[in-house]
Every structure is written in C-alpha cells, then in structure tokens.
Design brief:
FAD/NAD(P)-binding domain; 514 residues; Glutaredoxin; single chain; 28% helix; 7-stranded mixed β-sheet; 13 helices; 3 domains; globular; alpha/beta
Length: 514
C-alpha cells in the first residue's frame, strides 16, 4: 500500500524512536480488513521499534489502537487512516514517543489539569482538510494525560452511528452523545472547550507567570513572524503569542502573488516562516489567546490559559477570521447544518437542499462547488447585485440547480433540535419575511479582524480594524499593529510581511528613543 518513497521517509522519521510500539488490531470480517492490515504492517516495516499484533478483540469494522512499552496510550483508529489522516497515524507514534513538534510546558500543564476520565471520539471524512488538525491535537493531549482516550472514526464505516448522533459536519468531536466541537478549530480552542466540559484543577500562581519581554508579538502569521524576526535581529527580547504559527496562512491554497516566489501553498509557506523564526532567539508561546491587556509603561497581558506575561512593547498582528452571521440559530446548529467549509462538509449534503450566504467570490465559488454534489443550492446576497467576478457569476447562472436571491437579509436559522430544517430571510425591498426549507447553510460572508480583545484600549474603525499611522503606531504609546487586523488597505500576504517589519522597526526605534 505504501510506496517505496514514503517508506524511506518513515524510516528516516522513525529512526529516532526510543520506545517500543504495538499496533493492536481487532479481528474483523469486513471487506476492508485486509487493506488495514496491509497499511499498518507497511508502517511497522519501517522501524524495528514497531510491531503489529492482534488485540484478541472482535469488531464489525477495521480498527486498531496504539500501545507503547506494553501499555495502551489512549489513541485508536476506527477505519483506515489513509488520505489526509495518514499523517495523523504517523504523528501519533512519533508524538507518543515525545518527538516531533509538541506544545510547551505551560500548555502541557494545562492539559494535565483536566479532570478525567475523558473519552472522546472524532468523526472524520478522509477528504476533509480540517480533520487532521483536530485528530492530531486530541491525540497529542491523550499522550499527556493518564485518563484521556481519543478515537478517530472514519464516518464512511459507521453511517448508522452518524445518523443516530445527528452529525452533519466534520470533524465532529463527541463525548458520548454530547457534541463537544464541530468544524475547524485550533488546539487552544479545543482545550478551552474540554475545560468547560470536564473542568480543570486550579493553576498555581508560580506556573502562571511567563516573565518579562522587550517585545511581545500577538499573532503567528506573516505580519507577526516578520515583526518578531525584525525585533529579534535588533537584539530585543522577543516572544510570539499565537493560537498556531502560520495563522490563516495554513489554510490558504495556491499563492501566486508573493513576489519572487512564482507559486507556493499556505502550509509550505507557513512552515518556512516557522523555520525562519527558529533561526532567532524568539520564544514561541503557541496554543494561547490573549484575553486582556493592562496598559502602562510595562503592559501586562492575561491569557486564556490563566497565565500572565509582561512587555515594554506590544505588536498586534492577529489577522482576521471567517465572519459569522450573528443571527438566531447559527451557533446552535454549527456542525448540525450550519457550516463554513463547502469542501469539507459538502459531501454530507449529497442529494440535499442547501443555501450559501454571500455573493462575493468565496460565496459564488462555494455555490458552484456544492451544485455538483447537492440537490439544489440557493445563494442569498444582502446587496442588490452579486459582488463576485463576472466569470464566476456567469458560471453560477448557467447551473440548473442553482437559484439566486439578491437584496435579502438572512435573519434566522431554524432546526428541530438535531439539525437545520429551514432558513428565514427578509426581502429588503418590501420587508417581507420568507422561509426556505433546506438541510444546510454555508456561510461565506468574508473576514472579521481579530481585535476584540484590545478594542477597548486602541482605536478601531467601524469594521473593527485597528487604526494605525504610517509607522504602525496605534493611539496608545508602546502598542503597534500590523497586517489584516489593521486599517492598512489591501489584505495581502506580501503587504502583511512589510507592515510587520515596519511595526518591529518602529518598536525598536521608540525603545531606543525612550
């Protein structure tokens, strides 16, 4: 199953293993059982430290679990982790051995303070690009906590189970029949959700103080990376606080307008940013979010982890996230009919009726993609005309199973407690309310700047963008901002990099003049 090149790469990766692993498979008469055995035996063949053994248990579908040094570590897979999930299997072994990219001690401490027992199942699709990050995050947590188990489940093998639980989107993280999380989510947000569901023991005061810095950069995307590199090069003690290095860049597909680089992709570019950051003395505080900033000559930040940190200069480079509708029913049905990724969740709506909200390029592209899968698509646009490029509009209008409603305000999502059943919108011309019976709603209405945590301190415009001057200074001395979170025109990677460099240089200049 695995070609020689992949096996060669795994041999190199697993050469550093120090523990003994067993891939314990259940006996099954499923037609895909032989395929599973071939895969895990191929993986095991790349290291003397990995063996394949029967568990002694029977199962209706192919499945296996991991054992390290003779003890199960809480990680298991139901189905065959191929496609995007093959990396999850590879990393499960590596991370269980304490190797690979792992969270810092502060994050580990936070995971270990979760109250067990924690038994989670993540339902995925092998075509889902967002699923592996969630699976890998929970697998890492399972290696850190003695009473934490996590099972990846390929929904294609358990359709009755999917139906019984009312799952309509992936990844869906379940605790029993309780939905813990659905859709794309960062490791830090996952941990926050687990803390709410399971509870956590208190943080010690000593463990909550992260120290003092000359410069703190909030955000790990192009602007944040550029800022940190420039301040570190100037000899300033620098740290980056980020949910994940790379930020939204990690979810970007083809990039063809980064001057001097003819073509790259988001994950590749974000990996190069991380490697460049690693060349300097920059502390990385990943999987964290800033809750508040206390202003002063020395600024103190409160993090969602319960930790605090101080700095002379603060650079905000938090970018932007997908904008939500903010209407009744939206949050309640996320993962149960409300979705943001047509590529990941579209297959769950095969033969069904859906709506796409938003008439820009992203909305029209989503409607075109979905039209090839679903029974019907209705696209709803707030303005009197669609905002997308003409070539996309022409393609959309040529599709027989697509209808377009313009000049309409989406007002409410309805459901039966388990899934979405209808959508309400207002005709802006006559103020009449209309209902559409449907199975899913895909929200595609642009981005929102991530400035809320500091908007009570720095000046923002009506869109939430932070107001800056030509040197990236905000209205508060010692606080700077760069990239998509600011009022700078044109949200482009190359512009964010330049703005980040400018913010870093300005912070250095101001400290030298103080």
């Amino acid at each position: 199953m695995l070609d020689s090149q992949i096996k060669k790469q795994l041999q190199s990766v697993y050469k550093q293993l120090e523990s003994d692993f067993e891939l314990l498979y259940d006996d099954s008469e499923h037609e895909k059982q032989a395929e599973l055995l071939e895969m895990i035996k191929d993986v095991a063949s790349t290291s003397d430290r990995i063996q394949v053994k029967p568990s002694g248990q029977k199962a209706s579908v192919p499945q296996f679990s991991l054992s390290i040094n003779g003890k199960k570590n809480g990680i298991s897979f139901k189905g065959i982790p191929g496609g995007h999930e093959f990396t999850s299997l590879v990393l499960a072994i590596l991370n269980s051995d304490g190797k690979g990219k792992l969270p810092d001690k502060g994050f580990v401490n936070r995971v270990q303070r979760l109250k067990g027992p924690i038994q989670l199942k993540t339902y995925i699709s092998l075509s889902c690009e967002n699923c592996p990050e969630v699976v890998q995050s929970l697998n890492i947590m399972a290696t850190m906590h003695d009473d934490f188990s996590h099972e990846m489940i390929d929904g294609a093998f358990v359709q009755d189970e999917i139906s019984a639980l009312g799952i309509q989107g992936v990844p869906s993280v379940m605790h029993g029949d309780q939905l813990v999380s659905s859709g794309k989510v960062s490791m830090s947000d996952l941990l926050t959700k687990l803390e709410k569901v399971f509870g956590s023991t208190p943080q010690t005061q000593e463990g909550g103080d992260l120290g003092n810095y000359d410069v703190l950069v909030i955000g790990g995307g192009p602007a944040g990376a550029s800022s940190a590199i420039y301040t570190a090069r100037k000899g300033l003690k620098t740290a980056i606080i980020a949910e994940r290095l790379g930020g939204q860049l990690r979810d970007t597909k083809g990039i063809e307008n980064l001057i001097s680089v003819r073509y790259t992709e988001g994950p590749e570019l974000s990996a190069k940013l991380a490697d460049h950051i690693d060349q300097y003395d920059i502390d990385i505080l990943e999987h964290r979010r800033v809750q508040s900033v206390e202003n002063g000559e020395i600024k103190q930040l409160q993090l969602d982890s319960g930790e605090t940190i101080k700095t002379r200069s603060l650079i905000v480079a938090t970018g932007a996230n997908w904008r939500e509708l903010g209407i009744p029913g939206e949050k309640e049905y996320i993962g149960r009919g409300v979705a943001f990724c047509p590529h990941c969740d579209g297959p769950y709506y095969k033969g069904k009726d859906v709506a796409v909200i938003g008439g820009g390029n992203s909305g029209v592209e989503a409607a075109i993609d979905l039209a090839g899968i679903v029974k019907s698509v209705v696209l709803i646009e707030f303005l009197p005309e669609l905002k997308a490029d003409k070539v996309l509009i022409d393609k959309l209008e040529s599709l027989s199973n697509v209808s377009i409603i313009k000049n309409a305000r989406t007002s409410q999502v309805f459901g039966n407690g388990e899934k979405v059943t209808a959508l309400e919108f207002e005709d802006r011309a006559n103020k009449n309310l209309n209902n559409i019976d449907l199975d899913g709603v895909f929200v595609q209405i642009g981005l929102m700047p991530n400035s809320k945590f500091i908007s009570d301190l720095v000046e923002t415009n009506r869109f939430g963008e932070i107001e800056i001057d030509h040197k990236c200074r905000t209205n508060i001395p010692g606080i700077y901002a760069a990239g998509d979170v600011t009022t700078v025109p044109f949200k482009q990677i190359i512009i964010s990099m330049g703005e980040g460099a400018k913010a870093g240089l300005t912070a250095f200049e101001d400290q030298m003049m103080a």
